[in-house]
Specification:
487 residues; alpha+beta; UDP-n-acetylglucosamine1-carboxyvinyl-transferase, Chain; 3 domains; four-stranded mixed beta sheet; 21% strand; disordered N terminus
């Protein structure tokens, strides 16, 4: 269950936070080192004094391992509908909100996407949920300055995208939960500053809470592509509203590139012009958005869990609602087939069928598919022989360090797994049940549940985190015959 820290504890935390604001000096400001009044004055010069009051009055949620999922050895069979794509839903809501408005059909309504809805409303959009649709009255290319701190909860996508949008307003403060406050944003902040905005981390470490003040006028920004493609997507979404043209140069290899391609496709659907190359992107300024309607496809990342459950238990499952899209995590089909499962995909019907069997280890390059790493780790722990996950160093910067988390927790279940700087090395064998930690990470929790279906009695804490991307995950697994309870 989520609990709230006391006001006294939070004031101590926030006082320390605000009294260590060397980033303010980068904006040409100063303040008394031991006087919170100085912080208010410094923020007032930025035009953000209201945010300080709001931030101090805001008490972040502290998540405790409240909900426990108990999983027994199970065989899953039957049909299940894939949840709508979280990645597509985030983008469709925000891009629709930036234009005149429209309707997003079959969206994923989860903890993360609710954060994007709330943030879009903070920029001036009016949003309502009706049946299986999100109806949006947009802001017609003129996002307003938020009146309060934007709390993104646990959504890194919301934090990155909305930090960039804030750069075309008079300013905003963005923060989130304890996990969000550990995730890096330095490359994005650097680019926003290069493009004319003032953007910095309150704690001067590149992590939330973030302050972003416009207005972004365009120019050239050099972006380190090794951490997250969300930074590129954020810049691509905001740059059309800049006063001038924007050129983004990617330094190194861009990790998770398919997610940036989803952004480019949706911007094109919104009549936004972007010249996209391998390492450079050119975005003309003063454009208008016009995404009036969008239907969200099924999510391959979420589909990987029932597919993997069938694979490890040697059973048959059909995941419905899976149609062709730009999602890099469609690679799960190739991975499962290479491991020995039989997977067929009727692209017209959107039916993805799997028949499990004896699995064999494979090598998986995770540079484009970071969200599949926990699933692949479980498959490798059960498969015969060695499974190697490579090019996955960026997976350490998710809700938790997923490489370390999977290595530690699968080891508790008897797996022979070794953590490498950029991946995992796993030798398959027999798993046994254990009490494991979910790290408040939806993908860790769901992957460990799949491991429990073959290992036997397993208890996973922080089970409530599945609401981030797959609300109803445990209920859907139970419908397929899995022996699982949550409480």
């Amino acid at each position: 269950m989520k609990q709230t820290a006391t006001a006294v504890e939070e004031w101590g935390l926030l006082s320390n936070c605000f009294l260590a604001l060397p980033g303010l000096r980068r904006a040409g400001l100063s303040y008394p080192a031991q006087n919170t009044t100085g912080v208010f004055k410094a923020f007032s010069k930025l035009g953000l004094s209201g945010y300080v009051t709001a931030y101090i009055s805001y008490t972040p949620l502290i998540l405790f391992p409240g909900m426990i999922a108990s999983v027994e050895r199970s065989t899953v069979t039957g049909e299940v509908y894939a949840p709508p794509s979280k990645s597509y839903t985030h983008r469709a809501i925000l891009i629709t909100a930036l234009g005149p408005g429209g309707m997003v059909k079959r969206p994923l309504i989860s903890a993360d996407t609710r954060a994007t809805i709330s943030a879009s409303e903070a920029f001036g959009a009016k949003i309502s949920l009706k049946n299986d649709e999100v109806q949006i009255q947009g802001i017609s290319d003129q996002p307003r300055t938020p009146e309060d701190v934007i709390n993104v909860l646990n959504s890194g996508t919301t934090l990155r995208f909305c930090s960039a949008v804030a750069a075309v307003t008079d300013g905003a403060v963005l923060t989130g939960d304890a996990s969000i406050r550990t995730r890096p944003n330095g490359p994005l902040l650097s680019c926003l500053n290069d493009l004319g905005a003032t953007a910095f981390s309150i704690r001067n470490n590149g992590k939330a809470p973030l302050v972003v003040k416009g207005k972004m006028h365009g120019g050239t920004a050099h972006l380190n592509g090794s951490v997250s493609s969300q930074f590129l997507s954020a810049l691509l979404i905001a740059a059309p509203l800049a006063e001038g043209d924007t050129k983004i140069v990617i330094e190194g290899n861009l990790k998770s590139r398919p997610y940036a391609e989803i952004t480019l496709d949706m911007l094109a659907d919104a009549n936004v012009r972007v010249q996209a190359g391998r390492q450079e992107f050119f975005v003309p300024g003063l454009q208008s958005y016009n995404l009036k309607g969008y239907t969200i496809p099924g999510d391959f990342s979420s589909a990987s869990y029932p597919l993997a459950a069938a694979a490890v238990s040697g059973s048959e499952v059909t995941v419905k609602g899976i149609f062709p899209s730009r999602q890099g995590d469609s690679a799960i089909i190739d991975i499962l087939n290479r491991m020995g499962a039989k997977v067929s995909w009727d692209k017209e019907k959107g039916d993805l069928k799997i028949k499990g069997g004896e699995l064999e280890g494979v090598e998986v390059d995770a540079s484009l598919t970071p969200d599949l790493v926990p699933t692949v780790a479980v498959l490798g722990a059960v498969a015969k022989g060695k499974t190697t996950v490579t090019n996955a160093e960026h997976v350490r910067h998710k809700e938790t360090d997923r490489l370390h988390a999977m290595a530690v927790e699968l080891s508790k279940m008897g797996a022979d797994i070794r953590e490498r700087p950029d991946g995992l090395e796993i030798r398959g064998g027999e798993l046994h049940g254990a009490d494991v930690h979910g790290y408040d990470d939806h993908r860790i929790v769901m992957a460990l549940a799949v491991a429990g279906f073959v290992a036997g009695k397993t208890r996973i804490d922080t089970a409530e985190s599945v609401d981030v991307s797959y609300p109803g995950f445990f209920q859907e697994m139970a419908k397929l015959g899995a022996r699982v309870s949550v409480g």
